């Protein structure tokens, strides 16, 4: 098969050529519960850029060369002898984790913290290719209204945004505020999820006028440009108190300190983006009673819930399509901020 293969790390992302489009071994059925998926779409994620930078080397064991791509959807191509519930040709979306289902975390539905797991695109060959090996437990059959190429990025970007927004929505009441920092590939989904799940007023903060416009189209009630005065503007909107929930899809630079400052006393700051540091005196934590909550992708049931929202038209994913052989261009465009929404590779 053809694949876009990562051969070397580029810590500065300065080479301009991150992957090579080449012949690569077809994935094989190795377990009775394995499924081979013919890729219909593979999302291009900022995490992929972090993989190229080598940031994930300390977290996972992977040997180069290998195939990135952890946001995948397509059609069942082949399956192991123990697989039930799907048949060849079924359109499916793939939860990013492949787990056995036997450990306590799996049995509780908390796949992201399974004792043993495989993460295609992170620590195993992923979907920047024509075919992908995954597992039966990872598959969700798609309704006729949703095409694989249109939903592939939901498996990480959408699912991560959904998980954070769902957590926040459980505590948000009419008359309260939710601030979303970053209206890009994750943020524009998080805004739609918040609008679908709660009645709080949604405030979006971003430095891009294009992103702010997209955010308002997605349901944000207030748009604030990150130009140095964003904290003052958010406090003005929230009547000087800050927001009950702040979801930070940036997680680096000034966003962290700003996000915590935008969170009202007894409110919650949800961290999604990463790369920065949280520094807060313990006295401030005690006196403000603010909560800081991390978010790591999401569970299989949450992906089912997100597909239900998409099927009903309550969440729409803005995508830009690239051919698989143009994976370098997609990664470069993402790196340079030229992708509105999510980039998707089509084999």
From TrEMBL:
<dbReference type="InterPro" id="IPR013154">
    <property type="entry name" value="ADH-like_N"/>
</dbReference>
<protein>
    <recommendedName>
        <fullName>alcohol dehydrogenase</fullName>
        <ecNumber>1.1.1.1</ecNumber>
    </recommendedName>
</protein>
<dbReference type="Pfam" id="PF08240">
    <property type="entry name" value="ADH_N"/>
</dbReference>
<comment type="similarity">
    <text>Belongs to the zinc-containing alcohol dehydrogenase family.</text>
</comment>
<dbReference type="GO" id="GO:0008270">
    <property type="term" value="F:zinc ion binding"/>
</dbReference>
<dbReference type="Pfam" id="PF00107">
    <property type="entry name" value="ADH_zinc_N"/>
</dbReference>
<dbReference type="InterPro" id="IPR020843">
    <property type="entry name" value="ER"/>
</dbReference>
<keyword id="KW-0560">Oxidoreductase</keyword>
<feature type="domain" description="Enoyl reductase (ER)">
    <location>
        <begin position="11"/>
        <end position="345"/>
    </location>
</feature>
<keyword id="KW-0862">Zinc</keyword>
<dbReference type="InterPro" id="IPR013149">
    <property type="entry name" value="ADH-like_C"/>
</dbReference>
<dbReference type="InterPro" id="IPR002328">
    <property type="entry name" value="ADH_Zn_CS"/>
</dbReference>
<dbReference type="InterPro" id="IPR011032">
    <property type="entry name" value="GroES-like_sf"/>
</dbReference>
<dbReference type="InterPro" id="IPR036291">
    <property type="entry name" value="NAD(P)-bd_dom_sf"/>
</dbReference>
<keyword id="KW-0479">Metal-binding</keyword>
<dbReference type="GO" id="GO:0004022">
    <property type="term" value="F:alcohol dehydrogenase (NAD+) activity"/>
</dbReference>
